[in-house]
Amino acid sequence: MRVEMAGGICFHARLPLHPPIIQPHPPRFRNGIRCSKTKETPQILKFVVSGATEILRLFSSFNKNELNEVVPEQKYETAATCLDDVMIILKSDYDNAYFVTGNFTSGIYAEDCIFEDPTIRFSGRDLYSRNLKLLVPFFDHPSISLQGITKVLSGETESVKATWKLRTYLKLPWRPLISVDGTTVYDLDNQFRIVKHVESWSVSPLEAIGQIFTPSSSRSI
Known about the structure:
Blueprint: E1 2-4, E2 10-12, E3 29-30, E4 33-34, H1 43-60, H2 64-70, H3 83-95, H4 98-101, E5 109-117, E6 120-123, H5 125-135, E7 139-154, E8 157-170, E9 177-188, E10 194-201, H6 205-212
Parallel strand pairs: 5-10
Antiparallel strand pairs: 1-2, 3-4, 5-6, 7-8, 8-9, 9-10
Helix pairs in contact: 1-5
């Protein structure tokens, strides 16, 4: 029998002719979602997140005026000429709580920038801006605070690494609280434009999605 374990490690085991009957352990659930021992995001979860994003995008097509009032149109003229410029602009965007306001300096991003978090991956600066606009109207008393920002040099690639804390209630009947500590790495090209924006979280994707379905009556920011 060939058994494959996490990390790609395999071993072979010889089964007895009459193996004992072993009762399987019941699956563990958290916030109504089955827990996984691996940090890899299940494909079904990625599908659900992508589907939910598309539903929000369709919903927004009927509320364009309201969304434009919440999030002003972005300006593209700002550009960086060095790594320090990028850090200064990103600090300013965090001061403006860009993730929960949708107000970010799009001019420092390449048009085909790749955006990735543990649940979804796509390319396109304009698409990212639209996705932020979809989320902003659902936030209630949101905050995102920058904990630290540093330069990262790896070979020929220059990057900026930011750590942050996100806290927000959602405008749903049970008013769930989303509370995530995270890290974002911004990879730059030779023109100091951000070509890759990758988030990682302190909680698993299942735990993050589970927060959406957990009432906030016993939780606080």
